[in-house]
Amino acid sequence: MSQLRRSGPSTAGRVAAGVPPSGDPASSRDPASSAAPIAPHLLPLTAAVGADGRLLVGGVDICRLADEQGTPLFVYDEEHLRARCREAVAAFGPGVAYGAKAFLCKSMARLAREEGMLLDVATGEELSIALAAGASPSSLVLHGNNKSAEELDTACSLGVHRVVVDSSDELDRLVGALAARRTGPGGSAPAPQQALVRVTPGVEAHTHEFVTTGREDSKFGFSLASGAADAAVEAIAAVDGLELVGAHAHIGSQIFRLDAFVQEIALLVPFVKRHGLSELCIGGGLGVAYLNGEAAPSIREWASVVHAACASAGLAQQVRVTAEPGRAIVATAGITCYRVGTIKHLPGIRTYVAVDGGMSDNPRPVLYGSGYEAFLPRAASSPRPLPARVVGKHCESGDVLVESARLPADLAVGDVLATPVTGAYGFSMASNYNRLRRPAVVFVGDGKARVVVRRERVDDLLRLED
Ligand code: LLP
Questions:
Q1: Fewer beta carbons within 10 angstroms: which end of the chain, N or C?
Q2: Left (φ > 0), alpha (ψ -120 to 50) or beta: where does 456 sit?
Q3: How many of the other CB atoms lie within 10 Å of CB of 16?
Q4: Do the two domains 38-77+332-451 and 78-330 of this chain adopt the same fold?
């Protein structure tokens, strides 16, 4: 058996400040390498190929797993998830939070907590799942650009680690939530709720427009340039029971160019200093490689650029610098397995390969034009000379999973086909379009597989109906 893995601690090889942004939108493929086997750095950490050419992850034969569990199937390498969490904690310290929106279920929340990460939750529902997983309120950071009174009530009465204040209207609701807490049945005054203020720094991150969040024209946060963020600090300071400890910004997602974070920090540090804040959270956003030939900075490289930028901007050493990586923790840990059902050769046009999932389990290609690779786990290191478009089974032509895939020439109906780097924003954005049942999620490690989320059944689809 050969280990497919490259060296190094993280999801990718080298620092890529100058590497073209990719994944979103579909980036150009290097023609020279297009028939090449799937690149090892796109596969989970423990991926290995047996003498028979079959892919094992966590010591588990992936084709056999797909036979046993059915398809589509989300498969996560548990060791990979743990390694990325540990890398984040080592790089940023214990204040670093996992951006749970990238992939959240109880087992993932537990795993991130076991490895020492806090959990960034963006809704009351994500908060409930984290609590159901046994996470303590003091390990949760509550985000969201339109938190309801109910979400704020819950967060304040539980006493979450941080509430991130996103708007003036939300601050009004927060005042109500804190007042309700003070007059509650508890008696003595509770400890102040610690908060961060979300600042929009006005940075153009070079990524897809829909996932850019840090520029002026944004629904998120208080603008730095207009002075709204300074005014928000004063407004927050005036609220009884609320303690402003720091500033938060998030400039976008799938960012390859670390200089965007350097810019963000250069803009935020004067704000942090001006208000004597003790914490700066730079958000998430680190990109990952999706295609052969791409490389992204590692979490460790990201953190060292962030720390150097903080130092050169004159941020005091005692200010806690934190981050909230989501994608960089989970994306490469996950692969999705499908079953090939139809192969349609259109001479002079293209080959369509239809699988048993589609835009309902991975809407990213449709939403953002994201590019992916495809390969056959039964022939994991085989060349892929056959150009093909991998499509799903939904009733629309736009239901594309891999626009420009390359596959082995002996591809056949019945094969298990896998898309790597599908651990982030696939399961979490999955839908029941065409009433497809959402796939199961399996963690693999030490030669064993455990189902952490079972596949939906038809009665799950019907249970809300009268
Ligand atoms: N913190 C905040 C406040 C965020 O809004 C996000 C992501 C993160 C952290 C984690 O960002 P990450 O490290 O995963 O880039 N659905 C899109 C991505 C949306 C990101 C939303 N916010 C996609 O599939 O590309």
A1: C
A2: beta
A3: 21
A4: no
Cα diameter, the chain: 77
Q: What is the model's pTM? A: 0.94
Listed by start position, the domains of the chain span: 38-77+332-451, 78-330
Q: Whose CA is nearest to atom 9 of ligand 1?
A: 284
Question: Ligand 1 center to residue 251 CA distance, Å?
Answer: 9
Amino acid in the structure at residue 285 = G
- pLDDT for res 186: 60
**281 belongs to the catalytic site:** no
pLDDT digits 0-9 by tens, 322-354? 999 999 999 999 999 999 999 999 999 999 999
Please enumerate in sequence order all residues whose Cβ is within 8 A of that of 91, keeping only pairs 6 or more positions apart, or say none. 299, 300, 302, 303, 304
Q: Which residues contact 188 (CB under 8 A, 6 or more apart)?
A: none
Q: What is the number of the ligand 1 atom nearest to the C-alpha of 329?
A: 13
Closest by alpha carbon to 156, among 95, 242, 277, 221? 242
- Give me the CATH code for the 38-77+332-451 domain, please: 2.40.37.10
Determine the average pLDDT of the residues in 388-405. Answer: 97
Distance 284 CA to ligand 1 centre (A): 6
Dist. CA 7–CA 3, nearest whole Å: 11
| Residue 363 beta carbon below 6 angstroms from any ligand 1 atom | no
Contacts of 247 (CB under 8 A, 6+ apart): 196, 197, 199, 229, 268, 271, 272, 275, 277, 279, 280, 281
Token pair for 321: 């610098």
What CATH architecture does domain 78-330 belong to? Alpha-Beta Barrel (3.20)
H or E segment at 60? Answer: strand 60-61
How many angstroms separate the CA atoms of 190 and 130, rounded?
23
Q: What is the tens place of the pLDDT at every residue in 190-230?
A: 899 999 999 999 887 766 555 566 667 889 999 999 999 99
Q: How far is Cα 67 from Cα 63, in angstroms, rounded to an integer?
A: 6
For the CA of 287, the closest atom of ligand 1 is 15
